[in-house]
Amino acid sequence: MADVHVTCINKTPRDNTHEGITHLGGSTWKWTREQVISSIEAKTNTFYTKVNGNRGDIGVVNGPSGKYVRTYADGKWNDNLLSLPECA
Q1: What is the pLDDT of residue 78?
Q2: Is residue 58 part of a domain?
Q3: Helix (H, G, I), strand (E, B), or coil: what is residue 52?
Q4: Burial 14-47 (b: 16+ CB within 10 A, else e)
Q5: Nearest to 21 by CA among 76, 88, 68
Q6: Under a CB-based contact definition with an 8 Å cutoff, are residues 16 and 82 in contact?
Q7: How many domains does the chain have?
Q8: Which of 8, 33, 43, 77 has the smallest number of CB atoms closer than 10 Å to its CB?
Q9: Are 48 and 55 in contact (CB under 8 A)?
């Protein structure tokens, strides 16, 4: 199992929420949200962000419109993913 650092995201232009994230990426990779969710649920990989030196582990959340990803740090869900830049 790899511990994967997420450094960028893509989201739909109309949806600036976690449910609007379509892709997550790093320096040499870019996966769809569904691929990341499948990998987390299969325990194939773990994913995380680093914002201001703080690690936020990425988890799967069941929302009203289906599953999406969100970071969890310091005992609470937060917006670390939404603060990342857009992937190229």
Answers
A1: 79
A2: yes
A3: coil
A4: eeeebbbbebbbeeeeebebeebbebbeeeebeb
A5: 68
A6: yes
A7: 1
A8: 43
A9: yes
Range of the domain at 9: 2-83
Q: Which two tokens stand for residue 40?
A: 């987390």
Terminal-residue alpha carbon distance, the chain? 26
Domain assignment present for residue 66? The answer is yes
pTM: 0.88
Query: CA angle, 69 as apex, 41 and 25 as ends, to 5°?
Result: 95
Residue 75 Cα to chain centre, angstroms: 17
**Rounded CA gap, 46 and 87, in Å?**
19
- For the stretch 21-37, pLDDT in tens is 999 999 999 999 999 99
Domain assignment present for 11: yes
